[in-house]
Amino acid sequence: MGGQTARLSFWDRPLHAMTEAFTAAGFRIGVISEPPALPTVRELFPEGYDEDTGMRFLCFLFFVLHND
């Protein structure tokens, strides 16, 4: 990420479990975003590509959390 090493953690939970855990820990959720798939995904994974949504499965969710 920007030339720096970052630790990537996977947390396979339903969305409600993630948001409840964040708020229970005292965080306020500022943003939840789902970035679109890159254009090259269609060529790399044609069986998983959907013309309307871009993909048939969720790739990543990003959360902006505030502790104020």
Task: Outline the structure in words.
By secondary structure, the chain is of the alpha+beta class. It has one domain (15-66). The chain contains two helices and two strands; from the N terminus they run H-E-H-E. It has helices at residues 15-24, 41-44; strands at residues 28-33, 62-66. The protein has a two-stranded antiparallel ribbon. The longest helix has 10 residues, at 15-24. The model has no long low-confidence stretch (mean pLDDT 80).
Secondary structure layout plus pairing:
Layout: H1 15-24, E1 28-33, H2 41-44, E2 62-66
Antiparallel strand pairs: 1-2
The major β-sheet equals: 2 strands, antiparallel
Element-level helix/strand string = HEHE
Portion in beta strands = 15-25%
Could you give the order of strands across the largest sheet? 1-2
Question: What's the gist of this structure?
Answer:
The protein is an alpha+beta fold and 68 residues long.
Characteristics:
68 residues; alpha+beta; two-stranded antiparallel sheet; 16% strand
